Amino acid sequence: MQVRIAKAALLATMFTAGLFAAEAWADDPPPPPPSATESESRSIFVFQVENDVFNRFSPTDRDYTNGVRIGWLSPAITVMPPGIVAMTTVPTFFGEPQSDSVVRRVGVSFGQNIYTPDNTFTSQPIYNDRPYAAWLYASFALQYTYKRRDEKTGIQEPVRLDTLQLDLGVIGPAAGGEFVQNNFHNIIGVAQANGWANQLHNEPTIGLGFERRWRTGRTVLFDDPKLEVDFIPRIGAALGNVAIYGDVGGTARIGKNLRDDFGPPRPRPALPGSEAFIGDGSFGWYLFAGVDGQVVGRNIFLDGNTDGYSLRVSHRPFVAEAQAGLAVTYHGVRLTYTQVLRTPDFYEQNRWTQFGSINVTFRY
């Protein structure tokens, strides 16, 4: 019954979004012209590590235990085929004013995620906890930053960030989870995980995701030393054999030079998002805290392989997540640390998930 409710809620969400999009596409003016500053004309390189070693509640290997991602975001693209622009431009909604210009980038990233149950000592199948799983993937993204002229300063300010992403990969032994985890445990002198023979079997994966972020309410609290606050709401959705979900949330920030980016990059399974950042090279920083809610239709790491021949547990249709951390930017480098806390996401074990995420991003 609960699975049917989740699917119905997800379908209703997608249908409502479709109605908004159809109405917007009917009346939306042509896409804004491209633009690029000197900072936006550089490549962005990303290295991200996520691990439950940062879990202070229960520092052990379980649930989402490790993730690594490297990525590249192109310099601003000033010429793109009109057909591609038309197909990949998601219209505005909620009465949002038209933007004056847009910065378009393409991105490529590669990553691996590893998931384990709580008991990694037994080699026997575990039927009341999540299955072992690893995911090796490549992501191909289009990222559009929309800008609008600020009447006070006359500067084109980024006001919205859209990310459209295609994920291709494989789940199962071919993803190398056992090799990576147990060899790393050998290096650091930690006991091996013994249940990898029970992991999800090989399955190719494909998924399409979209996320939109807005930058709102930026207010200067003090001019000297400068201190600002703002709020970054976001919505997102994903469809594929790895994950089906709808997502809504937001992040509050306080610090200096908040206009440099759209908030911290988010951990998987959400879209990485805000790799791009701007700035004049001066020192910037901010503390942040955010929350998200998800309607989940599918999570292969809980529901098991699509063909049904694997271990599985029962995913919860509604989950929530809180994030908090610190971001620092200086001379084209941004360092971000995020602590993540998620509500229980399957019924067989009533436990929360906690892990940390470190992201290093630089322009070149």
Give the class-level CATH name.
Mainly Beta
Low-confidence stretches: 1-26
Shape: globular
Oligomer: single chain
The number of distinct β-strands equals 13
What's the end-to-end separation, in Å? 52 Å
> Number of DSSP helices?
4
Mean pLDDT: 86
Annotated CATH architecture: Beta Barrel
CATH evolutionary superfamily: Outer membrane protein
What does this structure look like?
The chain is 13% helix and 46% strand. It has a 12-stranded antiparallel beta barrel with strand order 1-2-3-4-5-6-8-9-10-11-12-13. The N terminus is likely disordered. It starts with a helix and ends with a strand. The chain is mainly beta. The chain has 4 helices and 13 strands. The protein has a single domain, classed as Lipocalin (Beta Barrel).
Please write out the topology.
Layout: H1 2-27, E1 44-51, E2 63-73, H2 82-88, E3 101-116, E4 133-149, E5 156-171, H3 177-188, E6 203-214, E7 216-223, E8 226-240, E9 243-256, E10 284-299, H4 300-303, E11 318-330, E12 333-342, E13 353-363
Antiparallel strand pairs: 1-2, 1-13, 2-3, 3-4, 4-5, 5-6, 6-8, 7-8, 8-9, 9-10, 10-11, 11-12, 12-13
Signal peptide: 1-26
Keywords: Signal
InterPro entries: LpxR, Put_OMP_sf
